[in-house]
Amino acid sequence: MRNPLERSGHWRASLRTADGWRTAREARGSYATASMLEWGSITKGLVGTTACLTLEVERPVAHYLPGVPDAEMTVADLVHHTSGLPRLPATMRDRVFADPYREAVGVRLDLAAAVPATPRGQFVYSNLGYALLGAVLDEVHGDWFAAVREHVIEPAGITSAALVPAPAERVVPKFLGRPITPWALGQSSFAAAGGVWSTFDDLCRYADWALAPDAGGARTVSWQREGASSWINGEVRAAGAVIANAAGVTAVVHALAKAPHAADKIATALIEHEVRR
C-alpha cells in the first residue's frame, strides 16, 4: 500500500508535539496563492461546543423550536448524532456533480423535514441534525455564527473565520485549469453543519484551544474518540480536513481534490511516523 506521506498533489500539514508546532508539509500550489480553506464538518466542533456552553442540552429541541416533529429529541441528541435524523432531509440527495446545498441558499430550514429515520439513541451522523442545532442557536442568540464567534472563535484566538470568503481568497483545486466551485454550504441553512472557512494557521489555533490541557470536555464534545485517540474531520466537494490527536501528538491536515478521508490517512501516517521517531 502506498505511503500516504508520498502522495503528490495539494495538501499541507502541521504537527504539534511537546516542543510546539512545526510544519510537516509547507504551503504550495493553491495553498501558496490563497489563504482561506474549508473546515467542512470540523465546523460542528464549534457549534457543538457553543450549544453545550449556552443551552440546557437535556431540554427537548421542541422547547426552542415548537415546529419540530419529534417532541422528545433533545439538544444533546443533536450534538451527539443520536437524534435519529438522517444525514440530509429526504428532499435532498448527495450528488456526485451537483451541489446539494445550493437549493438551501437563502431559505430557512424546514423544521417539518426534521423527521427521524432511525430510533432515537442510535448514532447516525447527521448534517440535518447540526443544521437544526444551528436553528436552535439562532432562536436563542439571534445568530448562531455570532454565538460561535463569542464562545469559541474569539477565545481560541481565531481572527479569519468566515462563512463566505471572497472567491480570490479561497484555497480550491482546479480541474482543466479552472477552479472547482465549492458547495454553497456557508450561504445555506446548513451552514452550521459545515460552512466555516479560515486560514490554516487558525485551524491550528482551534486545535490548540480544543485540546488544551486545561480544556473542559465541552471543547471536544463533537469530536470522535477511539481509545486514547480523538479527532474531528470534514469532507466537502473537493477538499478534506482533519485534526487528530494521539500519543501526545496533534496533526492538522488539509487536502485538495483527493479521495475521501485522504486527510485522515495522512494525519494518521504523520502521527505514526512522529511516534516512531
Q: Which stretches of 5+ consecutive residues score pLDDT under 50?
A: none
Shape descriptor: globular
Distance between the termini: 21 Å
Counting copies of identical and different chains, the oligomeric state is: single chain
Mean pLDDT: 94
- Beta-strand proportion: 15-25%
Characteristics of this structure?
single chain; 277 residues; alpha+beta; six-stranded antiparallel beta sheet
What is the topology?
Blueprint: E1 11-17, E2 20-25, H1 30-33, E3 37-38, H2 43-54, H3 61-64, H4 75-80, H5 127-141, H6 144-153, E4 174-175, E5 178-179, H7 191-194, E6 197-198, H8 200-210, E7 224-226, E8 229-235, E9 239-246, E10 249-256, H9 262-276
Helix pairs in contact: 2-5, 2-6, 5-6
In short:
The protein contains 9 helices and 10 strands. It is of the alpha+beta class.
Structural features, described:
There is one protein chain. The chain has 277 residues and is α+β, with helices and mostly antiparallel strands. 29% of the residues lie in helices and 17% in strands. The protein has 9 helices and 10 strands. The chain has helices at residues 30-33, 43-54, 61-64, 75-80, 127-141, 144-153, 191-194, 200-210, 262-276; strands at 11-17, 20-25, 37-38, 174-175, 178-179, 197-198, 224-226, 229-235, 239-246, 249-256. A 6-stranded antiparallel β-sheet has the order 2-1-10-9-8-7, sandwiched between helices. The longest helix has 15 residues, at 127-141. The two termini are 21 Å apart. The model has no long low-confidence stretch (mean pLDDT 94).
